[in-house]
Every structure is written in structure tokens, then in C-alpha cells.
UniProtKB/TrEMBL annotation:
GO molecular function (one): hydrolase activity
Top-rank taxon: Archaea
Database matches in Pfam families: Hydrolase_3 (PF08282)
Protein name: Putative HAD-superfamily hydrolase, subfamily IIB
UniProt keyword terms in alphabetical order: Hydrolase
Organism: Nitrososphaera viennensis EN76
Cited Gene3D superfamilies: 3.90.1070.10, HAD superfamily/HAD-like (3.40.50.1000)
Amino acid sequence: MSRKIRAIFADYDGTLCPAANLRSSDDGTSFIPSPLGETLWTLSGYIPVCIISSKDSHFLVNRAPFATVFSCIMGIETLVVKRRNNNDILPEIEKRRLSINRARLRENARKLDSISQIVQSEFPFVTAEKKRTSDDLLAGVTVDWRKKKDWDEPRDAIESYVRKIVSKYNNKSFRPVYLETYSSHPFIDIYATKCDKGTGFKHVLSEIKMKGEGQIMYLGDSENDNPAFRLADIPIGIRSDPRLKPRLECDFVLEQDMLASFLQRLLRNDLVFSEAL
């Protein structure tokens, strides 16, 4: 059976950009490495290349100029942007879509803000990265201890404390916030509503225009990619750091520093996937 690729959906952090790099750094380390970025730009001239990420649009859109659809904050917001003529110009947003009622989002944004302040007060070494919608509503918080040399040492204490605080807030509300934990990644995510990348995958799929028959490839590196892996025709896990040992539901695994050359071979093979690539 021919496995012609008709679209590529990809996570960002840990997949297109190495996991050890800081989540909000502007020093260049949180950008896609040049050979990979150039290859993705070339691919996007033939097929849709889209992003499904826990990051927000403020972080993603200018870091992935090849993408025309972004599922941001684990599917909470979807953006469709006009394809750019080159990777330097600012994107024109054509469509925005939220998967949560704005009244509920505003209510839970206050909880997220309070939770992040409490956790940072208890653990001063963590970073609380706030994820906002394109119109600046708080929709998620990542508690990140990636700056620590030993990612496992503080994990149990942070996770236990965050669970306790989130449970305290949720017990007082009919509109709970949603907690996502990971087996080996050095962060915890808290969102304004239950969300996952499977929902993001469906939202992106509904927005793209694909030419002809073919299959969808998904690239991801963590457990939060598993709902998208289950929907993809060709799910490929990406490894970018030996400290990470996530339980991935994928058929193939690639090292992150080999991703650019793999995609270049896919291009030379007329976008037909095979295990030999």
C-alpha cells in the first residue's frame, strides 16, 4: 500500500525544538534549528504542515512560519493563518476558534493565576509559564523546573503540592481546571478546561485543505501527544533528551537531531513514506 503523505502535524517543544531548551527563552534556543526549519518551509510548499502544541499562539506563530494552522494550548485555541510568501513577514490571522466558553475561561483564568502564584511561592526555582489566547485570556499554566540539573529530584514534591492546590480550587467549583502530569518531562500543565491533542488534531484536520489521497504523519515527544498519535496514520515519536523516557503510543521513533535529514529524504522520495527512510 502506498503511504503518500498528504499532511504533517507536529508538536513543537521537544519535537521541532530540543526539550532541554527553556520554554520561553528569546535567546534563540527555543527556535527550530535552521536545517529543520528550512526543510519544513520547503515541505509546506507541497502539503499542509501544521502545529499541535501546548504552547500559546504568542510563542508559536512567529517560530513556525511554515504552518498555516495552529492548535494552541492543547486544542483550546485554533488559529488559521494566511500562508506567507517568505518566513520573515508577520502572519495574517484568518480565523480564530475557541473550544471553551469565554465566561468559563475568564472564571478559570483567575484560578490559574492564583494557583501559579501559590506554586511559585512554595517552589521559587520553578518557572510558571502562562499560556494566553490570541486575545490575551489566560488559558493555561506550565509549572516548569527545566533549569534544575536533576529533573527527577523535585518531581514528587512539586506534583504532590500542585495536585493538592488544584484539588482545593476544584472542590469549590462546578468548573474545574484540568491537570496534566508526565512520567519524565520536567513540567506539569494546568488548563482552564479538559483538553488534549486529539481534540487539537480534529480541529486542525477540519481546517486544512489537502490535495488528493494520502495519509497524515504526526510527530510528537511526550505522553500528551498520545491522543494525536492514535488518530494519525503514521505516528512518529521524537527523542531529544536521554533523560526523557515517555510512554509513547507510536509506531516509529526518531532522534530529534535526525528529523531534518529524515524529512529531506521524504521530500526526495516524493512524499512517500517507508520504514527504509
